[in-house]
């Protein structure tokens, strides 16, 4: 007897049930992304220096470690650094702010459905963030192929952040045609490794990328119809490896913008956000906190 076929709607609904979505902890960004960052999609966060790329990624690491009752995924996270560990101090600052904010929130809720273990995990959010430091492409490949699968299997890792992917390829570039071909091959290999791991473990991958300035008008659509001042590094080869690109922009003031450049499920759109001492937040939420008597220290346009 022949098996009954499945419709495109059936396949789409089945896939959607397997997707894991991680809140950014910022309502304006979550609204832009229709809930947050998703598994099964390789997301790139690009932007000029001090646009807030690393700030967003550090917040995502802590968000993924929060218990589900507080909007997290209740797992661990992996932070792969390619440009030194200067951001670890900021991660500890955010971790302290998160412990205070969400530990207090759990105590106030006093919900019977919150297990004691969820509360006990609050002081040790940073204990759930694993850090790998790499400087070359071969080291990054080794992490993705050898060490990361074990981490995903043994520690229920929900998020992997690579900050930044451009750094390892910048060191490899010599400008020759042969070098460019090999670099493209490595890009596709890395992307394929991440796709396999994302499908097998339902893990979310987020990567930061740098930008370069002043490019031709014909290529401006790669980034945005609103600005032609910057384009993402690594060229078209890398652009074809990722599924989703978000561009962060800073201004002379404290407010930043995040723009959906391309995505398999999102239309082009923008959202506003602020970087405070306690993390990334939307301007509306910051305004509400001020009205309620909570003051947040804003971080200026030079934050990374």
TrEMBL record:
Region (Disordered): 282-304
Location(s) in or outside the cell: Nucleus
PROSITE patterns documented for this protein: RECA_2
InterPro entries: DNA_recomb/repair_RecA-like, P-loop_NTPase, Rad51_C, RecA_ATP-bd, XRCC3-like_C
Any one of the GO BP annotations: double-strand break repair via synthesis-dependent strand annealing
Residue ranges constituting the RecA family profile domain according to the UniProt record: 18-211
Alphabetic keyword roster: ATP-binding, DNA damage, DNA repair, Nucleotide-binding, Nucleus
GO MF annotations, alphabetized: ATP binding; ATP-dependent DNA damage sensor activity; four-way junction DNA binding
Predominant subcellular localization, coarse grouping: nucleus
Recorded GO CC terms: Rad51C-XRCC3 complex; replication fork
Classification via Gene3D superfamilies: P-loop containing nucleotide triphosphate hydrolases
Membrane spanning residue stretches: none
PANTHER family in UniProt: DNA REPAIR PROTEIN XRCC3
Protein name: RecA family profile 1 domain-containing protein
Protein source organism: Pythium oligandrum (Mycoparasitic fungus)
